[in-house]
Amino acid sequence: MNRASCLLLLVALFATAYSKDYFTEKFEDKSYEDRWVQSTAKPDLGAFKLSHGKFYGDAKKDLGIQTSEDARFYGLSAKFDEFSNEGKTLVIQFTVKHEQKIDCGGGYVKVYPAGTDQPGLTGDSPYHIMFGPDICGYSTKKVHVIFTYKGKNLLIKKDIKCKDDELTHLYTLILNPDNTYEVRIDNEKVESGKLEEDWDFTAPKRIPDPEAKKPSDWVDDEKIDDPTETKPGDWDKPEHTADPEAKKPEDWDDEIDGTWEPPMIDNPDYKGVWKARQIDNPAYKGAWVHPEIDNPEYVEDANLYLFKDLGVIGFDLWQVKSGTIFDNVLITDSVQRAEEFGNETWGKTKDPEKKMKDEQDEVERKKEEEDRKKSEAEQATKKSDDDDESDADDTKSPHADDEL
Ligand SMILES: *[C@@H]1O[C@H](CO)[C@@H](O)[C@H](O)[C@H]1NC(C)=O
């Protein structure tokens, strides 16, 4: 190992050793029920059940909490020691698997302030961060990243597509103290940027100068008619002309049939509307650019990323078609640690999970194929029986004659 990679490894080890997990949950057995609080705010909230689902990579490691009732709201949350992400990176990560071919339903987590009323959790409970996939029909297939700022929920202005297959996927939100962020799916970056630019935390920094106007003599026509060109004198010809081949029918009677007129045909000499050749406009000044000024409404906030009292994480969602499994929840201060945790959990089971799913799909495909063949065969037998019967009918008399 050379010096550089040795150093890298040390840095990596250091980062991991000194990272702090604020919350982890792998849902490996029923004991999660002691850590998670079911909301009782409404009488008909849906129930989560412990399950690895129809297909999985590891029967134990892939246990997670699965939504088990259709067309329900869900409300389940867990608390952790209150902390502030001041001056630190904040990573929120979890896996979600829509094995039910979801048509409409949330797949996100919400992170709440400490002291949130957990038994009273509803969709109205104020949260700090909402993050994760949301699917509804064909039009909504996105990753939500919502921050609550000065009492308002701010949605990310970029469109981040979520996964819409039936496999388990890892979702990671990284929030940095320099007010930048990154979203990863399956440990790969899908979006990143500056908080200030991608959410409307405050009025924009620069605005078009309201005083500035496009000068009235501004020329923004890029092309003009070539002034050296004029319409040729013999250009204009009628579009239609009397058919020179047509002849008045012999039996035409002007008195009965009216005055005979030859039918009109397209005039072969017609050239259409004359247009001058287009040339570059020598007076063209380019598109007018509205000058910008600093926006007096803009308020700088160096702490957009900061949440001082994080304390609860929860699944507050609506699902039309249940069956989603959540697992491997992590809140930490290290990207490296989150990546490792993702690798150890989702990274280890994703391939065997896919293998089992593919095998099940194959069995299913074969079964459908056999069923199809069987029903085709049955139809064919039925048809030939019918044919035999009618054949029998047809041949009855000759046979009968023979026998006689
Ligand atoms: C996670 O796994 C990927 C793919 O195998 C690897 O490239 C990456 O270095 C791993 N990350 C960590 C922190 O172990």
TrEMBL record:
Signal peptide: 1-19
Pfam family, any one: Calreticulin
Disulfide bond residue pairs: 104-136
Binding positions for an alpha-D-glucoside per the UniProt entry: 108, 110, 127, 134, 316
Region feature Disordered, mapped onto this chain: 201-264, 342-404
Biological processes annotated in GO: ERAD pathway; protein folding
Keyword line: Calcium, Chaperone, Disulfide bond, Endoplasmic reticulum, Lectin, Metal-binding, Repeat, Signal, Zinc
Subcellular localization, as worded in the UniProt entry: Endoplasmic reticulum lumen
Main location: endoplasmic reticulum
Entry annotated with the keyword Ribosomal protein: no
Record has Cell wall biogenesis/degradation as a keyword: no
InterPro entries named among the record's database cross-references: Calret/calnex, Calret/calnex_CS, Calreticulin, Calreticulin/calnexin_P_dom_sf, ConA-like_dom_sf
GO annotations of cellular component type: endoplasmic reticulum lumen; endoplasmic reticulum membrane
PROSITE patterns for this protein: CALRETICULIN_1, CALRETICULIN_2
Gene Ontology MF terms: calcium ion binding; carbohydrate binding; unfolded protein binding
Protein name from the UniProt record: Calreticulin
Organism, as annotated: Adineta steineri
